[in-house]
Specification:
The complex is a heterodimer of chains A (about 140) and B (about 140). By secondary structure, chain A is an all-alpha fold. Chain A has 6 helices and no strands. Helices cover about 75% and strands about 0% of the residues of chain B. In chain B, helix 2 runs antiparallel to helix 5 and helix 4 packs antiparallel against helix 5. The chains are: A mainly alpha (about 140), B mainly alpha (about 140). Chains A and B meet through helix 1, helix 3, helix 4 and helix 6 of A and helix 1, helix 2, helix 4, helix 5 and helix 7 of B.
Chain lengths: ~140, ~140
């Protein structure tokens, strides 16, 4: 799974867990996950199987509300350092875009059954196609 | 004379309602995660059984979910334990675990065209399903 996909899953799940610390976790965790993956070869073989689970436990203890998002960020494979930086950058850009779109997608002219989560998730899907096409340029 | 609800009560009830609304569809998103992360077909039954078992023994306990997923990954090394733990934490009760396990397994078994296997299209489909779900509800 590439970082763009991970970012959009987190954004879709972000409607479920809104937390003030969310932005700090999104900024730091991809870098930690990349560092763990990068230095994995240098970790002694006896403790290697415990590295990721212990990290997952520590992250989940630090914020139980953000545990699903943190686990997804740790699960994603980062091949390059720029991929670890892409997730927070993209998250901040799309969050600002969604805030800008909020008055437009919550107007009275939109039918009530589309209001809220359905229209937000559909908007995210459309934004994914825009950003994915941009990443191929 | 009926007591007028205080602001605090309104705020509290709104928050609870919001949480219930948020959690009512999380199983639909969870069911798409193994498909999105391209989980191998051989591992999907383990993921589904882990989710159902976890629904009964680890329900709502973050660390129990991590422990259960870790134990399962010892016996089935191909199964990504972070993904199972993340899926379990996102679900609220054992019913949602069963729904997600069944839908998730069905999604991995259905031969879906390659063109549809991207996050954007899936988000739009999830949005449409939620729209129908809200209308029927």
């Amino acid at each position: 799974m590439n970082p763009i996909d991970t970012t959009f899953i987190i954004l879709a799940l972000g409607f479920l867990f809104k937390h003030p610390k969310q932005k700090y976790y999104i900024s730091i965790l991809p870098v930690i996950a990349f560092a763990v993956g990068y230095f994995n070869a240098n970790i002694p073989t006896s403790i290697e199987p415990f590295a990721v689970p212990v990290l997952a436990i520590l992250v989940c203890i630090s914020s139980k509300e953000l545990a699903p998002m943190s686990l997804l960020l740790l699960f994603t494979s980062y091949d390059h350092f720029w991929e670890a930086l892409l997730i927070p950058t993209l998250w901040f850009v799309i969050t600002s875009l969604m805030e800008y779109l909020k008055p437009r997608i919550s107007g009275d002219y939109i039918p009530s059954f589309i209001h809220g989560h359905p229209i937000r998730i559909i908007s995210l899907g459309i934004l994914y196609h825009v950003f994915y096409s941009l990443s191929l340029l | 004379m009926k007591r007028m609800p205080e602001n605090k009560d309104i705020l509290k009830s709104h928050t609870v309602g919001q949480l219930q609304l948020n959690s009512s569809y999380s199983w639909i998103i969870v069911a798409t995660l193994p498909f999105l992360f391209q989980m191998p077909l051989s591992v999907t039954p383990v993921w589904a059984i882990g989710l159902i078992v976890g629904g009964f023994i680890a329900n709502k306990h973050v660390l129990r979910w991590i422990a259960l997923a870790w134990i399962l990954s010892v016996f089935f090394p191909l199964m990504p334990f972070l993904l199972l733990a993340c899926c379990g934490i996102l679900l609220m009760d054992w019913r949602q675990c069963i729904y997600a396990a069944v839908l998730g397994s069905a999604l991995t078994l259905i031969p879906i065209p390659r063109e549809l296997k991207n996050m954007g299209t899936l988000l739009i489909i999830i949005g449409l399903i939620l729209m129908i779900y809200q209308k029927v509800k």
